[in-house]
Amino acid sequence: MPREGHVSLEDLNWEFGCSTDEGALHLFTEEENKFRVEFREFVKKDVLPVADRIDKERNFDLIHEAVRKMGRAGYIGVSFPREVGGWGKGLVYQVIIGEELSAASYAVAVTYGASAVLYAMPIVRFGTREQKEKFLKPIMKGEELGAIAITEPTGGSDAIGGMQTRAVKKGAYYVINGEKRFITNGSRANYILLYAVTNPDVKRHQGISAFIVPTDIEGFKAVKDYELLGRLGSVNSHLVFKDCKVPEDNLLGEENGGLKVLMEGLDSERTFTSSQYVGIARSAFEIATKYAAERVQFKRPIREFEGVSFKIADMYANIEAARLMVLRAARMIDSGLSATKEVAAAKFFSADMAVKVCLDAVQIAGGIGMTKEYPLERYLRDSKMGQIGAGTSEVLRYLVQREIYRKVVGG
Ligand SMILES: Cc1cc2nc3c(=O)[nH]c(=O)nc-3n(C[C@H](O)[C@H](O)[C@H](O)COP(=O)(O)OP(=O)(O)OC[C@H]3O[C@@H](n4cnc5c(N)ncnc54)[C@H](O)[C@@H]3O)c2cc1C
After folding, report:
1. pTM for this structure?
2. What integer pLDDT is reported at residue 134 of this predicted model?
């Protein structure tokens, strides 16, 4: 017999996606909305049921299986060119995927994202026909995974200035030596999009290049996987490259043109990651909202106390604001506009918002919010990553103010 005021997760009967407001949906096209509805059904069937297990068991196999299912259903090719069998769709489709996946499992979203967005999209933009055939197609099925390796022990926020990994041209090969850390999918990836210094004698941003490195190459080693606070089950690795001979055909873009490859995609990739924080916050909000309607204290549902219900109103407004900022950034990029300020603002706003929303959701759930009876603590742990990955909230604030002052005072 259920005890009055005691709300188990089963009693809560949480309806995934119930808060996606009609008002926000009006801003997407009919076709985009159709895609969201279809993709949400996929997530409800193939990702949500395993989301808690992935976290509790730190189960990468379940994550990879979810990514494979995405591949089989064709979703990994959404933004890939039609010439390799993709859908040729823009960033708006990726932000729908990012939000819906993260609303169920951020661990699946980051594994998919590192492969199908961060690794793949620069190849879509800069790859030769042969590179697309060879290095995109296998990723589309979800069987094989990609990763992107920029960060090093000496280069985090200052990734370019602190880069020490070297690639030296020898005949038809580049010989690569160096270390990369915090690389999502690192030890499980089949291919790594690696940035390395090719000319140490010029300013660093003029002397780096991008390479596609197959991980079965001699001299490559994933030396450890990090234990993380959140996104448990996903893989994040420290990589070492020792005299790795990479064929010159695996150079992506031009030699010493690595910054262009990196920068052209950075805004899209940050927009995609921002959508993940909208998804995390949305689910925490939905659970907390339902819980507040059903949990009884002082003989009343706790939603009747303003200390609770005003939190719900604030959470709603902030999630909607973040979703609109992310959508605006995606639309600007899809229209070929420069959107660095809008993207950076969307990224730190949605990341900070998700941490606050998840904290408030745990607060509304009280003691049960601290337990693993409810997934709220999982969403809270996952949300923290948004303020660190793909540009910290501090670095993004720096970019926003710089763009503002360029307009206001020039230079
Ligand atoms: C789980 C996880 C997954 C990741 N996945 C990848 C990946 O797939 N590929 C990849 O290449 N990298 C990846 N990263 C690396 C990530 O992008 C970096 O951690 C991030 O850019 C910050 O770099 P750092 O950790 O070296 O911190 P630091 O740069 O050392 O920063 C430390 C602190 O100083 C602050 N700070 C630094 N410079 C400034 C400044 N100018 N003004 C104000 N504050 C400043 C930062 O905001 C931060 O709070 C991942 C990291 C994690 C934790």
Report:
1. 0.97
2. 95
C-alpha 263 – ligand 1 centre gap (Å)? 16
Report how far residue 213's alpha carbon sits from residue 208's, in angstroms, rounded to the nearest whole number.
15
b/e for 331-348, b at 16 or more Cβ within 10 A? bbbbeeeebbbbbbbbbb
Q: Which of 162, 204, 362, 335 is nearest to 280 (CA)?
A: 362
**257's tokens:** 């043109």
Domains in the chain, start-ordered, CATH in brackets?
Answer: 22-140 (1.10.540.10), 146-257 (2.40.110.10), 260-406 (1.20.140.10)
Q: What is the DSSP letter of 2?
A: P
CA of 395 to the centre of ligand 1 (A): 9
Say how far apart CA 74 and CA 256 lie, in whole Å.
35
Strands 191-197 and 146-149: parallel
**With bands split at pLDDT 50, 70 and 90, how would you rate the model's confidence at 25?**
confident
Q: What span, in angstroms and rounded, lies between the C-alpha atoms of 376 and 365?
A: 8
Is ligand 1 within 6 A of the CB of residue 385?
yes
Q: What count of residues does the chain have?
A: 411
Q: Which residue has the higher pLDDT, 25 or 60?
A: 60
